[in-house]
Design brief:
This protein is 38% helix and 21% strand. The protein has helices at residues 4-9, 14-25, 55-64, 78-85, 115-130, 153-171, 194-204, 221-227, 253-265; strands spanning 29-33, 68-73, 92-95, 100-102, 108-110, 137-140, 143-147, 176-181, 184-189, 210-215, 232-236, 247-249. The structure holds magnesium ion. Residues 34, 36-38, 215-217 line the site of magnesium ion.
């Protein structure tokens, strides 16, 4: 049974109301979700950034209905997201901004990185070591992220300066790009990005499939742009910011309402 209360607690948006109506009659659907900041609150200890507790059982029920393909699209390595969402399984994970993929059945794939790009990434790693940032660096497939969470603006500026002496030149190479996210920076392969991951998922889904993407970060803007005109795009964030997304939800309350609404519509 559909809950009127859930509907009325969501922000007024004609796009979202239309989407719910279409989802109800769609033969299949895809629910694409960023992880950090969207399904899970930020934590200083990144390895303990578990999802909002209410989210897991709802996602489990959505997956069990077998009508929706649930896909996590994260900047983290795919295996890390899988571990943080454990014991929730049967989810598809796209990690490292779409470079890696773990299918719902558990099969792992990684896109090949050209040797000259790998060489540039190894130079980027040397810059991190020279700037003494190894303790806050995360080496991941196709990129290196530096995490500033918990630091003051002054601290960040003083640490970033020596790093950027090396990274600025590398970021100008077309093979790489510099991403600024909520609490850090990452130098990584220019493609694929999250938008490419979303475009691949859209291509794999039938024309009749209804698709939504939920994300919080600047890197999710590529996903919003890739999906706009084809599905619904949702910014999940406590404060509003300029975005290409069509709808804004505040976590965790409005996010949970959204997921419950999804579950109701695919009954
Ligand atoms: Mg995020």
């Amino acid at each position: 049974m559909r809950s009127r209360e859930i509907e009325s607690s969501l922000p007024q948006s004609a796009a979202l109301a239309n989407f719910w109506d279409r989802l109800e009659f769609a033969p299949s659907s895809a629910l694409l979700l960023d992880y950090d900041g969207t399904l899970a609150p930020f934590r200083l200890e990144r390895d303990r950034a578990y999802p909002y507790p209410e989210v897991v059982p709802i996602l489990e029920q959505i997956v069990d209905r077998s009508k929706t393909r649930v896909v996590i699209v994260s900047g983290r390595p795919a295996g890390e997201v899988r571990d943080l969402l454990s014991p929730l399984n049967k989810l598809e994970m796209w990690g490292a901004h779409g470079l890696e993929r773990i299918s719902a059945e558990g099969n792992y794939q990684q896109a090949a990185i050209p040797w000259n790009t790998l060489e540039l990434l190894s130079q980027a790693r040397e810059c991190v070591m020279k700037a003494n940032l190894t303790p806050i660096a995360e080496i991941k497939p196709g990129g290196i992220a530096i995490h500033w969470r918990g630091m003051s603006r002054d601290e960040v500026e003083s640490l970033e300066k020596p790093l950027m002496e090396g990274w600025e030149g590398l970021a100008r190479c077309p093979e790489l790009k510099l991403l600024r996210f909520e609490s850090g920076i990452e130098l990584r392969v220019a493609r694929p990005d999250k938008g490419d991951a979303v475009a691949s998922i859209v291509n794999e889904s039938g024309r009749a499939a209804e698709i939504a993407y939920l994300g919080d970060d600047l890197t999710d803007e590529d996903s919003f742009r890739a999906l706009n005109g084809r599905g619904i795009t949702v910014l999940v964030r406590p404060e509003y910011r300029e975005t290409a997304a069509q709808v804004w939800l505040r976590p965790p309350g409005e996010l949970i309402d959204f997921l419950l609404q999804w579950l109701n519509r695919i009954q």
